[in-house]
Batch of 3 targets.
Target 1
Amino acid sequence: MNRLALYSIFIFFATLASGCKSTYKNISAEPDFLQYIGKTYVLKNNMSIHGINLPPGYSSRIDTYMISKLYEVHHKAPEEVTFAVLPKGSTITIIEVHECTNCLSFQKLREAYTTTEDFEKAVDVPISIPMHEIESKENVTPIK
């Protein structure tokens, strides 16, 4: 097969997969993740917190908040409803860990659902942070 055919097949299947809604399962009780439940972390750096509208479509309704690394340049995505900075020194406590069951990725996509008293939510929806942020300890550190 030539390169163009391979790229075309990849683009076709990627397009099909992009229309799928992600589904998650709670893996909090699994031995590898029990150590995180109830643990509090402090932010070593400022991080962003986005109010996100989940598919289908884009509206002004916030379905979830997502904490992520803060970059110098911020490009607003269509699903982003709000954006704020969660300041260095803020704390988060992990209440659950979830894993995507149908995401196309080279590694398993996992999210920690958290609570924080350092951010006032506009609506009562979950706050998540990618598990790689917790595991890498680049932007957060556990409180002992």
Target 2
Amino acid sequence: MSIKIKRQSLMGDSKNKKKVKQRATQQVTAQRQTSTVANQQATSQSYAKTKASKSKKVVWITIAFVAFAALIIPKPQMISYQKLNVVGTSIYWPGFLGLPATILDSDLTLAGDIEQGKIYLCDNINQNVGCHKYQIVKQEGFISVISHLISD
């Protein structure tokens, strides 16, 4: 008969305890990783939402600013004027914020009011020398100015 001797460890079954601890720490790290991934996804989604809402706000503010500027700034007009049956056509821009009214394609200084139907084009407005009186024949709007600029 052979007798089997069973060894006992003084600390108990330490190998099994190590395995249990390793499994528990692996589960805890896996849970931490999934929770951090979920937190990162949530923060990235909230960041994307705030970024999208900010970009939409910027677009709407830009559109509102351009529309407001288009309403306030005076539009150029296409005018036809004549002197001695010679007709000229130019782009007239009424002044804005202290800038004087001018004819864009001329070096001459504009005097007079276009609403009165008479304008004066002068070499030097201060000396009142070299001014020529022109009669306004026709006034056209902003669309004719654009078509004139495109055709040239």
Target 3
Amino acid sequence: MIKNTMHSLDDRIEEMDIKYKKIVGNLAANLAATTLKVKSRYFHRIGVSGKGYLQIYDSIKGLPEHKIFCPGKRYPIVIRHSNSLSADDDARIDARGAAIRILSDENELGSNSSLLDLTLKTGKAFYARTIADFATWLVCGLPAREEFVRRVPHVRDAVWMSLRNANSYAELHYYSNICRLFRFTDGQEMYVKFKLRPFDEGINEDSGKVEPIGILPPETGAIPRDDKDTRPLLFLAEDFQRRVGSAGGVRYIFQLQVRAVSNDEASRDIALDCTKPWDETEFPYIDVGEIIIDQNLTSEESERLEFNPYLRCHELDVIGATSCSQSASIDHGRSLIYEICQHLRNGEPLPEAWRIFIEQSDVKVDLSGCPMAAMLEKKDLGKVTLARTWYQTSWATFGQPLLQTVFPYFVMGLVIFAPLNWVLCLKESKKLSLHWLLPLVWVSSGIVAALACVVGKWILVGKKREGETVMIWSKGVFMDTVWQAIRTIVGDYFMEMTSGSIFFNLWLKLMGSNIELEQGAYVDSMGAALNPEMVEIERGGCVGKEALLFGHVYEGEGGKVKFGKIRIGEGGIIGSRAIAMPGVTVESGGNLSALSLAMKEEIVR
């Protein structure tokens, strides 16, 4: 691996494997695009905030000595309450949030810098265990989610438990769901979760609980208010401000739930699984201190608040992850996404490492409104890249369909004519019977058809280079379409029968593929001939039946089709009906299993 040392690196990105980077990069780019569009947060868009202090109790039972949460300490604190998705109506049933910023002890450090940022919400669990699950949940529709929770019922419980029909932000219980790592003064390490509960013990955990009315809530994630509900649209915000302004303010109890760190990796991953709450009888909540909020923040001050879940120190650390399949990946990944979106929302320049990270994603983000984009060229907004001229439209409507249906059969007619004429002459001379001659017609005409396909490839398409781009309505794409029709007929007529043999490999090589014939490469799919010059197979490489090797992809940027090579290393395998997109590399001994998909430029090990 080669690192670019010309700019500062972000350790969170460097620690990720390729698939993890791809998922987080796409998520960051998607959320960044929305952030730039609405100039606000993606989740928890509007909120109400107040400030006060966290007073740690003088005596804490069940918690080893800790440098930050030690008896008697007092920290300034800021809290922001919000709804998860509902930004216009507090009466909608939704998940509620409490973001807490614990500031450094002014007397000790002489500053008011942030010590710890926590993002809590209603519900003891989250619906996604990993960042990969979270990304899938965001992009799939309600039917797919419902099918998923049928197989994993506890995820359905996590979704419904998060929803609250709230009367007041101050009368709900909030949970962190995600673990952090505590390091105590004696060197002991433990996992920790945080909880915020109302000071009034009469308000139990079921406050505002919503009973399920289906498998999952509607796609919006927020159920509309009852028709008879006449409360103001932002009554929760108004209620919180009124309570903060009253005598005594708003009071909460700050709690911790700690758990020993196991030596076994599988046990650690179970402990970090945020879709399942910890057993409270085995890991009870410990009352650490009291939070009192007695000052309201203005809406402008509330909007400017930033919460960074990656704030860390030796005593209270973020748990890292290297793979998107690890339970810790969701906290590790979201910390990066949060910071990128906050920079864009505030119009601040992105660090070079983050900019490159977003640009390498599959999502195109218009960063023209950001300081970091000062050097980017301005887009020609008046030009519609996919627009066709009248003659291109006429050709695509009338000429092209006729050409790609009639011309291939005309070629096949010419190919078959000579062998068939020869056989009929032999029959008339009565040298051989017709039933002995017909197999020769198919075999000989099939070989000639394969050679004609090779000739057609070089005449109509030519040789494409890796990284080359062509316009989607260009003459080259039209000619490629005609050749693909010829290739399809030749395959159905003869060549598909030879797949998996040396003859098929030789045919691909004649059309531009780089295949080591003498070392036993195996190709059993016509899908390898879509863009033959984009296929490289080393000795022992294998392409299973009906696998598709796409050497080209329509990128959408400027109406261009881009070409990229697919490389299969020594002993590498692409399984049956698997799909490989441009730029995919199957390393030596790697295996892209059957029915799998490898996205652009992925490396399969």
